[in-house]
């Protein structure tokens, strides 16, 4: 069930998306909170129209959002968040002169109304 | 007020988006929880950079997120979720040899800070 | 930490995204709830495949989602929502014959599992 959406600003060219997809899924599927590897759906999105803050500086961001069914403990959620940050820290490009910010967010999905099936 | 965002993986070509938009809006606007048809804003998004799990299998997904103002009963949310799943089950392509997963999520939006107007 | 995502339907051509990015960030960073201007990451997304309601009318939407760490008061969240609505009201195009709907949503992000760092 987990959905992972990673978004990064368009001024991070040559982002190794394929490598990051593989690394993120490997790291998360090895965690006991992900019961079936089949459940994890990860995607990358590029934000081409963006602005960070108000200063005339070169800035970039990468932001990951992991959506899991509600009921995880705070500790489990923090572990998942740290896992994702670890992979993205390693693989995110750092162009010279650009301040790159990384953030990871865990979102609880409402379990009672969640629908899921294989077609 | 409801916002419906349907996302599908790029390996589901010829997704009948126009037909699905019409069918989803017709189904949801006929439900008593949608008070004014004008309120329902549905969009489709294609995820071209994605990976599902870790196995070397052909897999695809379609995921719908319905965002409604908080206050719905669990029963009403489950009904809305099932309605959406029903339409997508019918219209999502199933390429041969590809395992397609369908999921639907209902999200409560904070009512107190929601702003809405016609321009 | 705030993430602002503004989405608008593709039938609002010539949306002044650059101007709106600057105006939104200026307005929000002047609010006491945004402690460091560097934290605010704003992006625009165009929804090209969409449908609003069921009537055969020309309709458009712009929807903003501000994601903030949990803990804000309802009053603070309403202020932020109104600030965003004010900027978008001023800058959103209004093509003749098209009904344009504007909405703003504030989302609480789980503080305990949020990860954030500069690379």
UniProtKB/TrEMBL annotation, chains A, B, C:
Q: Which Pfam families match?
A: CHMI (PF02962)
The record's GO molecular-function terms, alphabetically, read: 5-carboxymethyl-2-hydroxymuconate delta-isomerase activity
Enzyme class, spelled out: isomerase
- What are the alphabetically sorted keywords of the record? Isomerase
Name the Enzyme Commission number(s) assigned to this protein. 5.3.3.10
- Which InterPro entries does the record cross-reference, listed alphabetically? 5-COMe_2-OHmuconate_Isoase (IPR004220), Tautomerase/MIF_sf (IPR014347)
Q: What is this protein called?
A: 5-carboxymethyl-2-hydroxymuconate isomerase
Q: Which organism is it from?
A: Acidovorax soli
């Amino acid at each position: 069930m987990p959905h992972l959406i990673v978004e990064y600003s368009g001024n991070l060219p040559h982002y190794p998306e394929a490598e990051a997809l593989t690394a993120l899924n490997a790291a998360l599927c090895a965690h006991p909170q992900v019961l079936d590897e089949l459940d994890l759906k990860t995607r990358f999105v590029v934000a081409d129209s963006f602005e960070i803050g108000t200063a005339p500086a070169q800035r970039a961001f990468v932001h990951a959002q992991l959506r899991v069914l509600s009921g995880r403990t705070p500790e489990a959620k923090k572990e998942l968040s740290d896992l994702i940050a670890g992979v993205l820290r390693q693989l995110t490009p750092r162009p010279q002169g650009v301040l790159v910010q990384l953030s990871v967010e865990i979102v609880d999905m409402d379990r009672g109304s969640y629908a899921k099936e294989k077609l």
